[in-house]
Amino acid sequence: MIKGVDHSDSTSVRVITVSAVVVTRPDGAVVTVRKKGTDRFMLPGGKWEPGEAPLDCAVRELGEELGVSLAPERLTPLGRFDTATANEPGFRLVSEVFAAETDVRVEPRAEIAEARWLTTTELRALAELPEDECAPWAPLLVRVVREGSWWRRYRGSECDDRDECEEQ
């Protein structure tokens, strides 16, 4: 059970399918978002529109939620992740996750109440949390940090810039 969310009903598995994006700054920090009316931080992203490809959804959601405009070729696929949902009891979350690096400013928009950058130190601590007791973080965020190859270059160091990170 995730704090505040009961996922114990296993009689029927209902699935929410989304695209999510790990947006990093050059220093390795990752942006997380909290939707209005919720207390959990998660990766930016959202549900696919009918006929929409996962990559197109990821690009659209970045614009809608954070005002970030990136060309599709700037996003790298990280894979599909199956986790508990953060805010929807009785559902599983299947996420097509992408990574993108940018140094543009993010601004919470639409249903996003808050955007928060996590440093590499915070990410390392997050990777140690059990997914069922990770509040205020979403299970998908914990899983992607723990299993994602996208941040290996940052994991072992606190780097101020990309060149310093790549040298270590």
Automatic annotation (TrEMBL):
InterPro entries: NUDIX_hydrolase-like_dom_sf, NUDIX_hydrolase_CS, NUDIX_hydrolase_dom. It comes from Dietzia natronolimnaea. GO terms for molecular function: hydrolase activity. Keywords: Hydrolase. Residues 13-140 form the Nudix hydrolase domain. This is NTP pyrophosphohydrolase. Its cofactor is Mg(2+). Coiled coil: none annotated. The keyword Chloroplast does not apply. The keyword Magnesium does not apply. Pfam families: NUDIX.
